[in-house]
Amino acid sequence: MRKYFISVLFILLLCASAILILAPPDTDSIANENRELKTFPEFSMENVWSGKFSSDFEGYVDDNIAFRGKLMNISDAIRSRLGYTDEGIGRIVVTSSDIGTGQSNEGRLVLYNNYIMEMFHKDEKSQTKYIEALNEIRNAVPDNIRMYSMLVPTALEFSDKAYSDAQDSQKEAIDFVYKGLKGIFPVDAYSALLQDNSDSLYFKTDHHWTTDGAYDAYRKYISMSGGDAVQKSDFTRKENGNFYGSLYLKAKSQLTEQVMDTIFYYDITEKNDVEIKMRAEDNVTEYGIGSPVFDLTKNNYLLFFGGDNPLMEITNKSNPDGKTVLVIKDSYANAFLPWLVASSGKVIVIDPRSFGGSLVEEVKRYNADEVLVLNYIFSATFDDYCDMIKKII
Q1: d(CA 362, CA 83)
Q2: Distance of alpha carbon 320 from alpha carbon 230, whole angstroms
Q3: Which of 60, 130, 200, 206 is deepest in the core (most CB within 10 A)?
């Protein structure tokens, strides 16, 4: 009887798995996470032996199953029961942290004052790898190129002390990285955001900063690099609709009231003639020529350049004598880039998570004046992201 029961259960699980895989994918849940649906990975012996194919295939399957959103809600609701409610801290939601590299770390979210905020946990081993990766870049590019590092804190760091103290200090983690850098100028985005301290610097349901928060950090960077920052008042502030951010789906089951964000931007293209070219992984094929700075088909964080791309060549034809800046980044840079484009001649953007070329070759190709590595502090705690930075060198 027991064997019969196990056999039936096994068959039912196989049938359920087949239904989940063969039925149409839940694209709405992907859209709620402000990213594109993962496509079937490229098959090659190199990808198979390196493990990249299996990792990418796992991500493909995770994205392309039916009822994905409902299954995640059930999973998060169960895992959240491991959290707790405390009058001194707030609701803690157990979840996972993922920056699009394939690695997933256990994480927690704080729900407070209509904000959903990631709790930071330091990892000095990974942070040391991050330091090593940046120092390797410094050694690989010519000495006459100035190199900068910007690590950006998240919203919880600037919340009420009772809540920010529930996590490891992001300020201490940023200082730890900056102290280990050699020949690299650290950009103090932390102080710039702290001094502003307005409600518009971060989204409430998304882990990213807004274009206002990015502007504060941009001004700090420009002041260090010797340029003139553009003024927000020079451009029209526009909105492109309401949205639920990347953290909303993870915390939805625990929210006591509806929370929604509004995506907004400052239209730098009103006064700048901007051309964008994007190059795919083979480092030759150009695609997306004429792609917009602001993709108005997206009413979420993907508004900025349509999301993350392997390599973007952004030319400001209105500023032909401006500097050429090469940016190595995660998605946090996307809201920052329009400001940088407005005061530069050319901005080259490389995302280590998908770029398949050589950083050194790109520096030479564009005769870059400066290199800026811009990430949010969580990225420095992911081993595989640090490895990806080293790989592009």
Answers
A1: 46
A2: 16
A3: 130
